[in-house]
């Protein structure tokens, strides 16, 4: 999922930005004169705000705190949630090379959040000042300032990986326990964090996690937990091995098989649906909804092929067990059928 979901989100955001830039109601025209400096918007998928031009001509110059504060006071912050993708919108023929940094008012230093002009934040929540250095092929250059306000969404937000592409493996331990087992972080895949306390205090501090027993281990992606266990060995197995579980079921007109490949960072679902009536196969697409434990939620529309089969492969990291029941709802020609998918075998 790590390899697919974020690029897909960036593609969706890019299309949205392009649509915004070419809306008829926008009166702004692309810059035509060599000395004209465009003023971009800072945008997320849901909203946008203006940036402010600090300097022309020299995009590499180090700015003073006074310059940054004065310019930043003239812009409104863009409100975003954790993991929300942010970028700067120029007209296509205005698009420069960009360098985006976060300015730290306490130290006066700049930090690079993410490259390629697409970035986002997880923590700390609150107000951030963003500097954008732009340079065009014709020699123009500029520095802009923008502000972003990151909303506090989760009680455990400060424990999540700051890298939007990384998983977070989180452990909660009894402060009196002498043995605390945690995996070692794996670069480019997951980061780790842990907290200790009494069961009661951890329940109060992190109410969304519904901690019932210590130790408790969670794996998060994009702020949401999809794996929970109290067993460090089960956690280790999930982090290091690939497990394949096959679930099957049928209804009056359909039968379905769901193969779940559980491997962190490379998990996937393979759904196969067959039309089992002797009548002519459906010529129109049908809609399906898959629901199960944890974060298992998939929906889409499929066509039946000449063999009366429809299938799809979905990159997704989920955690299910042999005892879980999964539901597949199919809607076709105004009729709804529900299939209970039950564990059939280990596909390894």
Please sum up the structure shown.
This protein is mainly beta and 348 residues long. 12% of the residues lie in helices and 40% in strands. The model is unreliable at 1-18 and 21-34 (pLDDT under 50).
How are the secondary structure elements laid out?
Elements: H1 5-21, E1 41-43, E2 48-50, E3 52-56, H2 65-72, E4 77-80, E5 87-89, E6 97-103, E7 110-111, E8 126-135, E9 141-150, E10 167-174, E11 190-197, H3 199-205, E12 216-221, E13 224-229, H4 232-240, E14 243-250, E15 254-262, E16 268-275, E17 286-291, E18 297-302, E19 309-315, E20 326-332, E21 335-346
Parallel strand pairs: 4-9, 10-11
Antiparallel strand pairs: 1-2, 1-5, 3-9, 6-7, 6-8, 8-9, 10-12, 12-13, 14-15, 14-21, 15-16, 16-19, 17-18, 17-20, 20-21
Signal peptide: 1-21
Keywords: Signal
Descriptive tags:
Immunoglobulin-like, 6-stranded mixed sheet, 348 residues, flat, mainly beta, 8-stranded antiparallel sheet, Glutaredoxin, 12% helix, signal, 4 helices, 3 domains
């Amino acid at each position: 999922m790590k390899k697919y979901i974020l690029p897909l989100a960036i593609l969706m955001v890019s299309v949205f930005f392009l649509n915004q830039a070419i809306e008829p109601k926008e009166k702004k025209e692309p810059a035509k004169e060599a000395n004209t400096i465009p003023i971009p918007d800072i945008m997320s998928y849901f909203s946008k705000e203006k940036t402010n031009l600090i300097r022309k001509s020299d995009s590499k110059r180090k700015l003073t705190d006074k310059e940054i504060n004065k310019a930043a006071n003239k812009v409104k912050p863009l409100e975003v949630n954790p993991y929300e993708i942010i970028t700067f919108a120029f007209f296509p023929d205005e698009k420069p090379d960009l360098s985006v940094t976060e300015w730290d008012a306490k130290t006066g230093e700049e930090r690079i959040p993410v490259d390629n002009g697409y970035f986002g934040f997880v923590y700390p929540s609150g107000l951030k000042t963003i500097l954008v250095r732009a340079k065009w092929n014709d020699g123009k250059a500029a520095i802009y300032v923008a502000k972003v306000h990151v909303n506090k969404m989760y009680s455990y937000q400060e424990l999540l990986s700051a890298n939007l592409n990384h998983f977070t493996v989180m452990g909660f331990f009894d402060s009196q326990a002498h043995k605390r087992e945690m995996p070692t972080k794996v670069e480019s895949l997951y980061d780790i964090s842990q907290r200790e306390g009494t069961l009661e205090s951890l329940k109060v501090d992190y109410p969304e996690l519904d901690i019932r027993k210590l130790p408790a281990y969670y794996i998060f992606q994009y702020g949401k937990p999809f794996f929970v266990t109290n067993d460090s060995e089960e956690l280790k197995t999930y982090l290091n091995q690939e497990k394949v579980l096959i679930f099957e079921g049928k209804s009056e007109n359909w039968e379905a098989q769901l193969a779940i490949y559980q491997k962190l960072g490379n998990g996937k679902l393979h759904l196969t649906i067959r039309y089992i009536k002797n009548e002519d196969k459906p010529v129109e697409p049908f809609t399906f909804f898959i629901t199960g434990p944890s974060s298992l939620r998939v929906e889409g529309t499929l066509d039946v092929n000449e063999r009366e089969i429809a299938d799809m492969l979905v990159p997704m990291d989920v955690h299910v067990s042999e005892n879980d029941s999964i539901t597949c709802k199919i809607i076709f020609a105004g009729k709804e059928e529900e299939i209970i998918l039950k564990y059939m075998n280990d596909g390894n």
